[in-house]
Amino acid sequence: MPSPRELTAEQLRRRADTSQFSYASTADAPDLDRIIGQERAARAIEFGIDIPSPGYNIFATGPAGAGKTSIITRFLERKAATRQPPPDWAYAHNFGDPDRPMTLRLPPGGGIAFRDQLDALLAQVSETIEKTFSGDQYAESRNAIGRRLDQQRSEMLRQLESHVREQGFTLSTTPMGTMLAPVKEGQAVTPEQFSQLPESERDELAKRGQELQEQMERTMRHIHEMEEAAREHLTQLDQEIASAAIKPAFDRLAAEYADWPDATAHLQNVQTHIAAHTDELKTQSAGGDEAAPESPMQAWFQPDHGTPYDRYRINVIVDNQGLKGAPVVVETNPSYVNLMGRVDMRAEFGTLVTDFREIKAGALHRANGGYLLLDARVLLRQPLAWEALKQALRTRRIRIEDVAQQVSAFSTTSLIPDPIPLDVKVVLIADPATYYLLYAYDEQFEKLFKVRADFAVEMDWTGANEEQIVRFIHHQCEEDGLPHFDLSAVAKVVEYSGRLVEDQRRLTTRFAYVSNIVVEAAYWARQAGHTLVTADDVTRAINERIYRSNQYEELVRKAITDGTIMVSTAGEVVGQVNGLAVLPLGDYAFGRPSRITARTFQGRSGVINIEREARLSGSLHDKGVLILQGFLGGRFAQDKPLSVAASIAFEQSYDAIDGDSASSAELYALLSSLADLPIRQSIAVTGSVNQRGEIQAIGGATAKIEGFFDVCRAMPGGLTGEQGVILPETNIANLMLRDDVVEAVAGGQFHVYPVRTVDEGIAILTGVEAGDRGPDGAYPPDSVNGRVDARLRELAEQLRAFEDEAGLKEAPAEPDNDQSADDAPEGDPAG
Questions:
Q1: What is the pLDDT of residue 611?
Q2: Most buried in the list 88, 219, 229, 555, measured by CB within 10 Å?
Q3: Per-residue buried b or exposed e for 544-574, using 16+ beta carbons within 10 Å of the residue's own CB
Q4: pLDDT of the residue at 708
Q5: Domains in the chain and their CATH numbers?
Q6: What pLDDT is stored for residue 187 in this prediction?
């Protein structure tokens, strides 16, 4: 048999070409000027940011470590710098409905300035009112009104009293009020004396008393009206005086904010309310320390330092002071309150109270007029947050609501702040699975997030992209203050990038992992005292990273070398082959060889998957085993029935198995058992097979080869020059093997065999040609296929003969359905 085709050392790994660079280290490389390898995502993000129509929010998908957050943040900051800062937002007391605080739209970055100016204005108003209403002129004006009222009251009472006397009565003051009493002989008549008077006289006095009583009531009513009018006059006077006193100050501030209607409207409301409530403010200004409020409901008028002027202040919840463009907000904990804002409570006199000053902004408020970046998975884990965000985007309003009210069965009194208009671009970041789930199960999702930005896992391995990696390293070193890399170290980083995607044609775009190696290699360079990071430093960083994670791999390898896990790397065995699997352990994965055995025997049950029977097999592995039966039937059962039973097992496997990458190894074991040809145990196998016997590509080829190589090297006999791995030819481009494996292949100590078909693989494993059908349709008798075909024919004939013999013996003993064997007609065997 001719020697099988092997891969050369050069085919096992691609080397980075640093000869294209005109500089000796990354210190002289240009700085990074664009995003690497994410052209598709970049175009989608640019489109989503620029289009002004509602609903064109962005959902970015991609793997961890692809730089989604940093790339999108950079895009958003660049775009935000070209826009004008949005207005500030504040809440103010609603004088018409205190439970519904009003929103104020204020100049960008001017909210704090307006708040401070308003505070200064209120202080000035307080001082003005104190001076105005404590002056002699004001006191004289009030006294004059009081004197006029007293004179009018006295004159009316004098006239009343004179008329009463003329009618023979007198007025007397009692605890019950002013009373009328008849007068006789200059003395008021007592009730006893009145009862002794003649009836006619009593009637006359009663009649005149009733008339006088009515006149007295009219007089007292008139006096009350005069007093009420005087009070109204005094109040109007106070309002006119206060309005005239504070108007200039308000006019100056209103003129400054003439372009902002909310500010001027609030100033007008404050001015009007102050003028209408001068009595309260005079009392506060003149009274010094304020007494405790009569009820908790009054407490907010006198909070903390106790001043009714606090109702006129504003609460700036969004302050864009210092912004050079639109805001970019990255909310790492998008809970409901962190997203939508909240209304806090404070304890006063043993009661929880609140007002507009306790309203706090959320991330949507801070990002309003700009961009908000959220992790979709974190957002979806927060109760009510996802629905609140959708509602805000649909209505284009930010509505602050008490989250307790939404989940409580009872309604309590709370503030209902006016909603704020929303103008924001929301960017959600998640994995593709989250996107697909939301798209499938949330009908509003596609209407609100119309732009999908897919981040790539890999990019082409070209000279231009190698240049971009050099620039990335330069940028990382400059940003983090790391020593720069020489070109040999750069080559190692580029090759590590290719190894991460296991492809000689691709480089990874998950630069978080590349960044880790850059940082760690710089650390080891400093430990070694190098001014530049060298290839040895990068190699050590990679090896140290592996060493921190591969303890379990070493335990498995030790179990193999000491015989606890039975894997042979020498000799030949019929129906036994070494399969290869990859075990992922978080950030690390390694290849592990496993013994696969097959036993064939007489029967019709076909191929029995022992793993499936033990419920340790996944659906993909089950499919692979079923394909084996299709292959056997298609190749060997065209002229005879496939009368065979076979069992396949992964020996010493106690965990679930899935995937079809071992299906070719299982087929080799079956063919070996049927042909009674031993398989070389020094060769391990990976690759899936289809029903036509073609070997198909699998994943993890690099890890699988290295895993078997490490086991062979660790065995007592070490590398013998006979060991190797069979893999699909279509996986050649996926090989990025370690340097020690490449060196072993170059030295003839280890071999890598690419195969296209099962025939090529079985020939390598058995040392016997697979054999092709001749003109007569038969395989060469000494070939693998010839031996298998002969064995299957033999099994079919043996099974047929056995069934015929068993059927003859059993027939006389079986009764007919309707009659016994003794009653059966002649020539018709019973049963």
A1: 60
A2: 88
A3: ebeeeebeebeebbeebbeeebebbbeebeb
A4: 96
A5: 17-33+458-549 (1.10.8.60), 38-85+325-455 (3.40.50.300), 97-159+216-322 (no CATH), 567-776 (3.30.230.10)
A6: 72
